[in-house]
Structure formats: structure tokens, C-alpha cells
């Protein structure tokens, strides 16, 4: 399996769209790994986790062949994860002259499916289009996609909708992609019990700052999740643990995050970071 982090920032990005705080000013100057676009990750070049509002920029940055995409698994409907309007540009009506004959399958909760169809209606006057199909993702219900199996798992994020984190499996390789979420429910650890994870990718929106909202995480919550996973027998000496979805509220540069998280055995993800397993 090959995964590539396309965007590792929170909703406002780093530097944040309208912000002039020290973290944002430094990032704008420093560039490189201090720039964090909105969250999205590509798996095996064919499965996209979330449609970031920065997808077009990602395509340009990383030379992505997005026509090869088979499916998108959407975590939730927040605008930094689901730019539904962008999907209409896969339609052969004006926007996309040649794409694969099969429709792109987009899996998500009921709000995601509704928003997606509404975007097509707004653009073309009808909800259905042969270029994209929206399918309802169900908690703990397997999605098969060629060599990949994807399992939506309930997140703890926005109570107004069913938000998902995802378990993605290819042979012996199992990755847990967990943003956006706060601490996970006991049913999640029951489900994961004994599954040996190659990668645990965690929401670390608040870094080393305290966060009391419960719907995202910082290092303290990340370490609590890691402990639960350890107790559930999910970690091996080769399990890689990464943190992502950083916001400027971390008040840290990438280098600082890399060092401080590194001391806790966690790697700070960055835009463009690639991880591979045989
Ligand atoms: Zn987010
Ligand atoms: Zn800022
Ligand atoms: Zn969110």
C-alpha cells in the first residue's frame, strides 16, 4: 500500500486564510513543510480520502492523475473535507472531455450524499450524472475496491452527522485514518481488537495546546488513543504513528512539531509525505 498525504492542515490551513498571527506569518515566510493545505490523502493512487477545497492545487503540486481515481471515501461534510462542487467537474458536460468510463464512486454519510447530489442539481439541473455516484457508507460495513477493503468507523466529531474515520486494508497492511475526531468510543476499540495496524494516523488539530472541545485532538488525546490501541493489541514494533490535521492553534512550526511529537514516538505528517508498505 502507498499513501500520500496531500493536505495536513485544518479548515483554515496554515497560514490561515485571513490570519496574521505569528505562526501564520512565519509559515508564509518559511514555506516548505510549514505550509499546510486542507486535509486529503491518496491511497494507491486510486482511493481519495476526502475532497479537499485544495484538490486542484494538489493535482498541480504532486502531478496527480486524478482520472485514475476509483473512489472517494468522505469522512464528513465539513467544507475542508468535502468540496462537493468540485465533483461536478468530472461531468462530461463541458468540464471533463475524457475520463474513465466507470463513474467515480463517492462514499459518505447521508448529508455528504445529499450535498453531492445537490451540487449536481445546482450545476446541471438534475441530481443524477453518469460521472459520479454517491453511496451511503455505513458504520463497520465493508467497502470493497479492487485490492483495497475500506471500513467506515464512527468518529467523535460533529453530533449533527455520522462522521467517519476509516480502516483501510490491503493484505497484511492495515491503516487507521482518524481525522476529524476527538477521543474514540469503546465500540471502536472492541472492533479493532487484535487487528495489527501498520499505520495509525491521528487528528492533532491542537498540537501541544489544551483543547476542551472534545471534537478534535491534541497530543494528550493522541497518546490516550495510542494507549487504548496498545491495550487492544493493535500495535506492533513496526506500527507507524503519525499526527495530522494541524491548525495554527498549535502555534508550532513543522520542525518544532516534528521534534516534540518525535519525542513521543509520533511522526508529524506534512503535505506531500508518502508512506509505503509491501
Ligand atoms: Zn477538518
Ligand atoms: Zn494564524
Ligand atoms: Zn470537521
Automatic annotation (TrEMBL):
User: Which residues does the UniProt record annotate as the domain Metallo-beta-lactamase?
Assistant: 48-231
> InterPro entries per the record?
Metallo-B-lactamas, RibonucZ/Hydroxyglut_hydro
Q: What domain of life does the UniProt record list for this protein's source?
A: Bacteria
Q: What is the name attached to this protein's record?
A: Metallo-beta-lactamase domain-containing protein
Which organism's genome codes for this protein? Lacrimispora saccharolytica (strain ATCC 35040 / DSM 2544 / NRCC 2533 / WM1)
